[in-house]
Amino acid sequence: MTSPFLPLGRRVGVRRRVGARRRAARLVGLLVVVCGVAVPVAGCGEASSRSGAGGDTDPAALLPASAPVYVEAQVRPSGQMAVNLDAVAGKVLGTSDPGAKVVGWIDGALEGSGASYAKDVAPWLGARAGVAVMSVGGGGGAGGSPRDVDVVGAVASRDDDAAQKFVDGRRGAVDREYRGVKYTYDAGRDVAAAVIDHAVVVGTERGFKSAVDAQSGAKLADSASFKKARATVGTAGAGFAYADPARFFDMVAGAAAGGSGKLSQGSASASSLQMLKGLLAGSGLESVAASLNVAKDALQVDAAAIGVKAPVGRGDGDGPAAAAAVPAGAWLSVGIGDVGSTLATALQGVRGGAGIDPSVLLKSLGSQFGIDVQKDLLSWMGDAALFVRGTSMSSLNGALVVTSKDPAASAAAIPKLRTLLKSLNVKVGELSSSAPSGALGFSIDAGSSVPSKIEVATKDDKFAIAIGPGALHDALAPPSHLSDSDPFRAAASLLGDTKPSIFLDTPQVVKLLSSLAGNNKHFQNARPALEAFGPAAAGLSSSGDVTRLKAAVSVP
User: Fold this and answer.
1) Are 106 and 7 in contact (CB under 8 A)?
2) CA 544, CA 537: separation in Å to the nearest integer?
3) Within 13 Å, how many C-alpha atoms sit on residue 277's CB side?
4) Where are the beta strands (DSSP E) in 14-102?
5) Would the CA dihedral through 182, 186, 187, 189 be positive or negative?
6) Which of 38, 40, 263, 427 could make a disulfide contact with 270, Cβ separation 3.0–4.6 Å?
7) What is the DSSP letter of 64?
8) Residues near 307 by Cβ (< 8 Å), separated by ≥ 6?
9) d(CA 164, CA 184)
């Protein structure tokens, strides 16, 4: 007999609250039961599939195609995936029996409904569960009250009789019917639920009704963009996420309008949203998707932006090489290939997507301060990297390092930048004595808000903007490189053939947070889980209209 599995999530809505926030918390708590990251729970037995469909119902086939955001999880994994989930969850939760801890959280999330996981959920829980977020921050809750979120989820059932018993047995729920579908509704928590096509469909009443409407209308699983997203990143892992950017934008805009659906014309919010909508339309972005895989000692994410006209990462630059070349000891490194061309392309995107002509601003800058952004700056900028080091406030330092395609041009930019800053009444001084021999540049006094002076300098084919002890010297003349360090190599190995353009040494970050947090009880409670993670890395690649991001963090 194999062990059943159930989701991992935070305990939500354990105590009763009043108003919309309590209803939202309770609903999220219920969905946590069926839509988190799966971990094995031993000793719960295996239920038969008496009246279900084997528990493999596709949740997306029961949810509306209009969903802006959708998240799916394998809640009854098997084989190596189950073994890996158990191993990783045990390390993060700091226990040899992660399932027992998760059961406690889930029972807490179910508190007040009169149900428990072992008695009421485990007997029917199928293979997959999915949740769609339909709206955020709108009105229209039960009795005309406001609601923070409208969601609906579908959980595959392998025993419809047991699932129906769970739905019918919810404490405080009454029987209702919508378009021929009988369901139970708890008005106090605004939670509606029913068994539909071998799945438990549960959500806010408005979200639930949208799922019922989808049964005779457009289903998410049938959407062309959703199918392409699934095919691009796959669904064989522990989890899958999908977003429709256009619908997501409309949802956010609706929330910004306070549920009225309208923003004041001419307001800053309206102008910003209009610009963002133009950028979105100009980018060609159709969908964003991601899948989660769990290895025995790592979490891996494969994400994709689909339909992008000019994906990030194209061009002759080498962002991964820039990220690897920063000084050893950095806990953060972010590399960008050919930053000059990237910025120039971004400016063109702003002009084409949002109806704004940045050239007007740039010409104004040139006429007032005598600097041509394209000629004096962007033209010579090649690959760039940002790095940060230090595990205490006193040792914190970092720099932006740009490789120059034309060292003479980058050297000529130094006096022009100095003149520009002086004209803006910025205090400009000399470089510190720790700057490498031959460096040309200046320092900036940013005032008491910044503990160290900002230094801007160039040497040979390197240009750097640095802050903190030793940052400028090591940025322009690194004694050793990040690529030679064990943490970087370990993180890079998790990405397979993808080279990392982003690196994060998680253990060093935890040390920094610890020095800043002191005895803060919230951090101390979270610290054991944070210390379970090792170095992390992410890398970009593109093919056609798809830009992919592969990311991973070790759990040693």
Assistant:
1) yes
2) 24
3) 14
4) 37-40, 69-74
5) negative
6) 263
7) B
8) 284, 285, 286, 287, 545, 546
9) 10
Residue with tokens 């592969």: 550
Beta bridge partners of 149: 136
184 in Cβ contact with 194 (< 8 Å): yes
Report d(CA 188, CA 86) in Å as an integer.
36
Distance CA 528, CA 258 (A): 39
Q: What is the pLDDT of residues 443-486, one digit of tens each?
A: 998 776 667 789 999 999 999 999 999 999 999 999 999 999 99
Phi, psi of 129 (to 5 degrees): -140, 145
Look at the block and give the residue holding tokens 């528990």: 55
Residue where the block lists tokens 């939202």: 24
Nearest Cα neighbor of 114 from 62, 188, 44 is: 188
Q: Which two tokens stand for residue 370?
A: 């005598």
Alpha carbon of 145 to those of 28, 254, 259, 262: distances in Å?
A: 18, 17, 12, 19
Percent of the chain with pLDDT over 70: 77
Task: State the Cα–Cα distance between residues 367 and 374, nearest whole angstrom.
Answer: 14
Query: What is the value of pTM for the model shown?
Result: 0.82
- Contacts of residue 433, defined as CB under 8 A and 6 or more positions apart, other chains included, come to none
6 contacts 41 by C-beta, under 8 angstroms? yes
3-state secondary structure of 29: helix
Single-letter amino acid code for the residue at 5:
F
On whether the CB atoms of residues 360 and 348 are closer than 8 A, the answer is no
Q: Tell which residue, 301, 273, 385, 332, has the closest CA to residue 504.
A: 332
**DSSP β-bridge partners for residue 183:** 176
The more confidently predicted of residues 388 and 8 is: 388
Coil/strand/helix, residue 470: coil
d(C-alpha 485, C-alpha 506), whole Å: 14
In terms of Cα–Cα distance, which of 64, 259, 47, 232 is closest to 149? 259
Q: Is the dihedral of CA 432, 435, 441, 444 positive or negative?
A: negative
Helices within 94-244 (DSSP H only): 98-109, 160-168, 205-214, 224-233
Structure tokens at 311: 């994906």
pLDDT score of 441: 96
CA proximity to 28, closest of 135, 188, 151, 199: 151
Angle at 389 between CA 385 and CA 390, to 5 degrees: 170
Residue 180: which residues within 8 A CB-CB, separation 6 or more?
Answer: none
How high is the pLDDT of residue 178?
97
Whether the CB-CB separation of 131 and 35 falls below 8 Å is answered with: yes
Looking at the DSSP bridge assignments, the partners of residue 66 are none
